[in-house]
Structures are given as C-alpha cells and as structure tokens.
Amino acid sequence: MKSRKTSLAATFLAVALAAAIFYFLSAPGASQDVKKDEKENEIIHPWDGAKKTPVHLLQLRDENGQLIIPTESYPFPYSSRHTCEPCHNYDTISKGFHFNAPVSENDGRPGEPWFLTDPKTGTVLPLSYREWAGCIKPEEIGLTAWNMTILFGRNMPGGGTAEPTPEMEAPDPEARWNVSGKAEINCLACHNASPRQDHGEWAKQVARENLRWASTASSGIGQVGGMASRLHPTWNIYDGPNRDDQEWAVAPQVKYNPAEFDSRHRYYFEVTHKPHDSNCLACHSATPVGQALNESEPDIHRASGLQCADCHRNDLGHDMTRGYEGEAAEKGMKNLEGFTCRGCHLGEDAEGNRTVTPGRQGAPYPTHAGIPLVHFRRLSCTVCHSGPVLKEGFGRVRTSAANRLGIYGLASWATDEPVIFEPVYAENGRGKIAPHRLVWPSFWGRLAGDKLEHLKPEEVMAAAGDVLKSEEHIAGILMALSSASAEGEIPVLISGDHMFQLNVDGGLEGRPYVADKKAPWFWAVLMEGAVSPFVPDFDPDSLERDPEIEARIFNALTALSSSSGGRRPVFLVKSTVYRLTDGYLETVARPEDAGGLNGFYWSGEKSFEPLATEFDVGTVTAKAGTGKTLTEEQVSLVLQNLKRASENQGQAGDFVFVAGGWMFSLNQHGKLVAEKHRAAEPVMWPLAHDVRPAQQSLGWNGCSDCHSVDSGLFFSTLEGQGPLLTRKKEKRSSVEFMGASGIYKRFFGLTFLVRPILKIVLTFCGLTIAALFLFAGFQALGRISGLNDRR
Amino acid sequence: MFTAVTAVSVIFFFFVLSFHRFWATCDLAGKNLVLVSLLWTYLGWLKRRTIEISRSWSSKKLLAADGLFKRLPLWRASPFEKWLFLLFYLSFLYLAASGFFFGLFIRRGLYGYPLLLHVTSGGIFASCLTVVVIIKARDYIEMPKPLVLDISLFDPRRLGISALRAQYASFWIFVVAGFLLIMSSLLPMMPFLRYSGQKLMFEIHRYAALVSVLAAAMFIDLECFLMEKGEAK
Q1: Is ipTM strictly over 0.90?
Q2: Separation of alpha carbons A407 and A413, rounded Å
Q3: pTM for the whole thing?
C-alpha cells in the first residue's frame, strides 16, 4: 500500500514537472528571449545601395528613452543608445573591436596597451584585457571597470569597460557609476563630421566623472558644467542640481542651445558614415619626441587622399579591419586579405599566393627592383616603409593613448611617461621581422616562487611611508615660504649644482645652478635672476630691529606652522631664536647646544632639525637633471618597508622592483641586487603607420641602407629605460631583438664589400658559358644544315 | 609544390637509371616479353639487387669501392685540373646539400652561415663550371650529321641512343642548369627585376638546381656504367 502511494506521488510529481517545463517553455518571456536574440542580429535598416549619408535630423532621447526638450530646466544628456538605436542596433555595435576588449574571443595581433603610470612610485605597467604578450590583465592588480574607465576613459570611445554589465560592476563597491552614469558608446567620437567634435572635452568630462554627459559635451550638442567627482556618493541624476553647494560640488548639467533644434525638437547631427581622420587621430596619433609640427610628415596614404576608414573598414558589427597579415585567417574572412599592404599593393594573400585583386583605391604596384625575394619572405612591408627612418639609434615617440596627446586646456595634459621607443625590429609571431614600439615596464611586485604579483601604486605608497615623498616635502616647504615671500620673489632650495623651485602644478622643478658643490644646501629667494638669503643678515641684538625683517620671519613661521604636521618652526640667528607663541613672534635666547645653526628649523624636544631632512634633499639633488624619479636608496628602503608591512600582516614573500630590464631585490644582507627576469622584459607591439613614400623607404639607396658593418638597422643599441637612477643598465642591440647573431650580421654586412666582385665573376661566368653554348649550338646547326661542310 | 616535384623527379630518375642498368645487364635478347612481365622481371631484379647490395655492404666492399674511387680519372689529371675538379665537386656537393636540406626541410629556407657558405660556394662553382666547360666541353660533344629529310627520322632505333650519348646529354643539361643557376643568382642582385621577376628567378634557381642534381646523378651513374664497361673517357 505504501509503495503504491509512493508510486502515485512520483507520477503526480512527474506530471507537475512536465507541466511546469511546458509552461516555462511556452511562457512569453522565453519567446521574447528568442525574439530578442533575433532582434539583436537583425539589421533594422539594411543599406539600400545609396552612396550618400542620410540626413540625421533626430529627436534626442535620454538614457530612459524619453524625448529631450532643450528648453526645459535641467534636461538630461542625450543617450546614443536611445537616440541612435532605432536605426542602428546598439547591441550589435557594442561587440565591435573598440568596445569588446573585456569579452573579446579573438584578440588579434598585439596593439598598444594601456599604461598605468605613476611617477612617484616609478610605475609603468602595461595593461590590457586582451591576451597580448607582456600585458597584465587589469583585474590582476585589482583594477576594476570603474578604475579603468577613470584612468583611461579619456581615450575610450565609451561602451565596453565604460558601460559595464552588472557582473563587471560587482567587484568594486567604491565605483561611482550611480553618480557618474555610464559612458555609452560615443558614436559621435568617430562619426561626428562637425568641427565642434572635441576630444579634449571628452577627456575632461571623463576626468570629472561626468561619464553620462561626456558624449553630449564633446560633440558640442550641449554645454556641460559641474563635476560628478565632487558630489556625494549617494547623489544621482534624479536629484537634480545640488542646492547646498553652487560653487564647489556643482552637479553636472546640460545646457542645450534651443536655436539648434527645430520646432519638433529635432537636432541636426552632422555625421558621416566614414569617420574623419581627425577623429581617429584623436586617439591614434604617434609623434616622435621633439619633432616640430612643421617638420611632421603625414602618412603617405593620407597624403594621397585616403582616409583611415578607407582601409580600416567595418560593418555594423564594428569589428574593425586592422589590416595585418593573418587577420583574414583568424577571423575566417577571406576578403580581409585585400586589406593588408601585401594584398592591396601586390595582390597576394598572407601565404604569398596571388589570390587577391590588388590596386584598391589606386594602390600602386611596387617595382621593388633589385630587392631579393628573401626580403619579402622574412620582413613585413612595414620594416622598410613605416615609422621613422632608423638613422642614429632608436627614437622616442609619444602616442595619444599613452602620453595623453591632443587634450588642450590651461593645464598641460601631455606626459613624458611612458617612454616609448621605435622602431624596434623584432619577430612578429608570424616568422617575419616587423617594426615595433617598445616600453620597458617598471613596477613593484611580490615574488612568491615563480609567481609575480604586481602591486598597485597606492599599495606601494601606503607601505613606503615618507620614503617616496622627498619632492612633496620640499615642495611643501617652498609653498609655505612662497606665501611669506614678497612680490617677485621665488623661494628656492639650493643644493649641489641645482636650484629647486615650485612649478605651475605645485611640484618641484630643478634647474642647473652654478654653486659650490661641497657647500651645504640652503633656502633662498630668487629675484630677478639673483639669489639671496630668505632673511637678510641682521643683528637681533641691535637696538633698532628692522620691522620688515621681523615681519618676514613672522610670516614665514606662520606659513610653516600651517604645514608643519605638529612641529614648531623657529628661526635661528646668532644668539637668538625666533618662534611663534600664541600667534605672536617671540624671541628667546639660543640654547647652548644649538651650535652655529642659522635659518629656519623645526624645534624638536631636545634639538633643532632642518626643515628638510638630509635624505629628502640628498634624494632630490641626486635625481635632479637625470629624468629619474627613484634612487637605489629609496628602492631599498621601500622594499624593506614592504617586507615589514607584509610580515606584520602575517604574509610571506619577497618584494621586488622591476625597471629598465632588471629585477631589483634585497639580498640576505639587505643590499640591493639586480637579476634578469621575464617580467622585466619590454612589452612590444607592431607599428604600421606612418607609412613613408617609396623614396624614403629603406633600400631605396641600395643594399647598404641596411647591410653594412655599422648598419643602424642591425647595430643600434637600446638602453633599458626606467625611473631608477642606477648604474645597472640593460643594453640590447637591434639584432638581439630580431633573435639574430650580431657577429653574423656584421660578417654579412662585410660581404657587401666583396659583393661587386661576386657580381663581376658571375657575369663573366654566365656570359662565357652562354657564349660557348651558343657557339656549340651554332656549330651543331651549321652541321645539321650542312653549311659547315660546304665551307 | 617544389617538394613534390623533387620527390617525384628523384623517384622517377631512380627507376629510369636502375631500369637502364637492368636493361643493360640482364640478357633479355630473344625474349619476347610483354610490358607487364617486363615490369615484373624488372622489379624482381631490383629486389635482388637491393638485397645483394645490402648484404654485401661490408668493409671489403667499401675497400672495393675505394678502389673504384682511386681509379677515378681525377687522380690522374694534372695538379691544376685536380684542384679544379675537387673544388668543382665539393662546391657543387655543398650547394646541393645545403640548398635542398634547407629548401625541403626548413620552413624559413636557407639562412645564416650556411647561406653565406652557399653564396661563396656558388661563386666557386660558377668559376669552376666555366673552366670545365671551356676545357671539357669538347669531350662531350658529337657533331650531328647533315640533316636529310627521311621517314627514318621518326624511328627511335635510328636515333642511336646510347649510354655515351645520354652522358653527353646529361653533361650539357648540367651546363645549361648551371648557367641558369648562375643567372638566377646574379640577376636578383641587379636592379633590373621587379617583384614578380624576383619570384620567377627564385623558382628558376630552385628548379635549375633540381635539374642540375638529376643531370649530375645521371652523368655519374653513366660514368660508372661506362667505366665498368671500359668505355669511359
């Protein structure tokens, strides 16, 4: 009976389960999902064949899909998803190369990574979501989508990382998406044909965390004011303007120009199907360091009238044609063979077969007269035709994405870091030599066995304490002294053969100064090119004290007090100590153990300490004029501090600093030592542009352009570049990057001296054999015809 | 493509030369063999010869081969001629070995020091070949008779194909291939040829090398054959 009941219950459960499955399968939601998938792949308005860009007179819609009325108060920024979507499928576009880095399945040939740079900690870390050699995944050092967007969003076209899915948001509770909104794909970053398109404005809006407003502002559709970065984390766009603060924490808001809208609230988008080059170059420029604008030559393709998008094409999926050999095979799209240099100019696919129709856009067929075939098999076209001509060593180049070029304003956005070198000729992964750009990474890390964990700059700064703050300390004192200086006076620190003063950003700037190197450092003022003591000589015991001098001392002590960190500043002169007591200047007799000290000091419990420590002054003096930001002493101290902090947390592991091709660590005696490590290897990515005209190609002047005993192409030496001031320097020649032997290449270069002789010998041999053969042939012919016998 | 052509050519030449030996050494006179049975007889002979050679591969035989080696006319030549031929043979051997090894088995092709040595050997080979043609061509030429139009022209038995004449032919084929090798090395270094011309020269170089190796093999085989018969020059 019991088993029968069980059986009945089981049958009932089975029927119920089947019914439930049927219900869910037939439920509207499921069918909607299917329809949604279909819709995603649907081309809403397929191209009808008309070769013109339609007029884009559109009603703007906000992120909720609501119509934007430009005259209403506090209107929302326009949303590309809701404004463009009715005709262009947003989800399809979002899978494009510019937006799919975090989820891409085909990363393709390595490109330029993002560089996390931090001069204070000397960090230059190549980051990429893509599986590119030498790059670190952002999540490996704890960088979330939010961090990446704020750090690098200036050169992102929205979407992807800047518009993360809920799964991508989850790991970062400190993200402020709620305040900033998400940066949707900025269609206008590329397709805006209006001269008002402003990449710099986009970068500024991203820096202000005005992500959802950035597109509206940069395209010139509306003016955006306010800064989301200053708002309370609980603020959201529906809260409207910040009534409590109209000056500092001003909420972002848009002002549209009603005159630019028609009566139906439609805005005229001046867009183009094929993006203008200036829009591409906003993020893809690369310029040799030190090159003047009037010396700059355009890519030969641009000079010939082509645009970037003529070759770098895409369909609605925005999967950009990158144009490298092998891309066609990777993507399974045979037609891409025609978009490589080789395909377009020679009509050959990546394997060298003539399967492509050449001559697109009038591409000329190159003669390559006298260039042996091995060059085409071993070298990519770009070796001879792209990048700067390698004359004397490697050149430095700055790129938009790495060095923040093309962002203009009162402040200078462009940076020297990271230091990028080109052209470095190395194998491109397809057995060919290609020119690359190169960066030596530098970073702090924890070494656990073979595994190297990269440390974020914030972690290093936290553990380093004051070790990495020498510049900051001295700049703080100079800042305080400057507030006590008279008009036209610039407080300076003179140390060694350098004079240090504040720069416009409040940082420390050193410049050469002719002084006695052995003299102790001192604070002074610079006025009209002359250096004088901050406080002129005077006698404090005199009956008539100069009130101006005492006022100066008072002001300086007051300013120093405000940045003293609890310490008490004093001014020592002869037998007198000036100090502040209850806001008044007071003089007391100098203690006997104060020695011959003169000038400003911190008053300690038992002694007087200089305003800046010997370590701080020594550090900035050592680095002055070298372009380096760290000394070996600093690195040793930070490594010790990191280890101590780690041990305090009960964690093991050795800490290292990687820079300039070496990995630095402390040995068992606490001494800094350097060793090789794969993590110290430079990161490289191939360069393709700018392409030079044929007459400026390598080989135009003959074989000796490259093949000689002192060839720049083979024997230029690249020195490991890093923030550390050290004698330990990695040096590599071009041939090492190529994986070739230097001795062989020199020997090979030498053969070109005797090559003319070989040519003469071969010519003589060939002509002689041909003559004999012809003679014998004529003889035989004469014999066959009987003419010889008749003679 | 080149690999396949090389493999097929070598196999084909092996069978042609071995069939010539079979035809010349086996007494088939008076036997009216049909093609199939001829083939089976040949294959049987080939099998026997292979077994014989493998069994007799001993030091004694090597010494015997050494004797053959010592009997080569090279050693009887004047010192100048001796060095000329030594250089000629050695350079050709290295050119063939390095070229085919890298060409067939190394994806990148010939490179590095072997390439430098290849180019150097090429210069020596070209020089030696030129002298060889000058001083030896006369030994490998037979002037044809005045041509008379006759139906017998089309009778292969009247063409007078012999081992000696085949050796003459192989000599001249080798010379032509050598000439093509020289020109296909020289012209790519001159500023005349465009990309397609360079490609053509590369192909000519490869196939001329193959032809020269096959011609040399044929020449040597026939030389040995004629030496055994006492007809060698």
Answers
A1: no
A2: 6
A3: 0.83
